[in-house]
């Protein structure tokens, strides 16, 4: 296959306020996790069952600045991007891996829940927001870490 597709889309709720850091160039980077839940009725017990998956997100540049202003813990959001796995070493020198979604498109969803409301006096953009390419990309060395 000439072109593969690396596209992830999620709707979920922020587990905490976005964490903002800055690259040496001054470009902002936002890290956060969202909870994506599914529920169903257990056929054996008749009870409602639920499972939650936590998804790690990374955003750069103007997208990171926007979510810092308008997103907070509990906000329901739509995100789209590409999955990346990074390799790093812990303090003991052991190789560790982290899988995250490099987000390039977001939308704040209105759901009417109190903890998903924006701070007083601020209104999040109603339509989606797409990251413009910043020229920063992670090297793709073709090495699969597993």
From TrEMBL:
Region of interest (Disordered), ranges: 107-146
Any one GO molecular-function label of the UniProt entry: single-stranded DNA binding
Keywords (A to Z) from UniProt: DNA-binding
Compositional bias (Low complexity): 114-133
Transmembrane regions: none
Pfam families the record matches: SSB
One Gene Ontology term from the biological process aspect of the record: DNA replication
Gene Ontology CC: one annotated term: nucleoid
Subunit structure: Homotetramer.
Database matches in NCBIfam families: ssb
Protein's recorded name: Single-stranded DNA-binding protein
Species, as recorded: Marinobacterium nitratireducens
Gene: ssb
């Amino acid at each position: 296959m000439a072109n593969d597709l690396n596209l992830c889309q999620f709707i979920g709720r922020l587990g905490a306020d976005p964490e903002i850091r800055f690259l040496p160039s001054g470009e902002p980077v936002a890290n956060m996790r969202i909870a994506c839940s599914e529920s169903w009725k257990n056929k054996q017990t008749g009870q409602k069952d639920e499972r939650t998956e936590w998804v790690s997100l990374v955003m750069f540049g103007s997208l990171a600045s926007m979510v810092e202003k308008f997103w907070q813990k509990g906000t329901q959001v739509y995100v789209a991007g590409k999955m990346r796995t990074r390799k790093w070493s812990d303090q003991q020198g052991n190789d560790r891996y982290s899988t995250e979604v490099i987000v390039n498109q977001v939308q704040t969803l209105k759901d009417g829940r109190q903890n998903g409301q924006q701070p007083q006096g601020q209104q999040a953009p109603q339509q989606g927001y797409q990251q413009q390419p910043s020229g920063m990309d992670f090297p793709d060395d073709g090495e699969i870490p597993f």
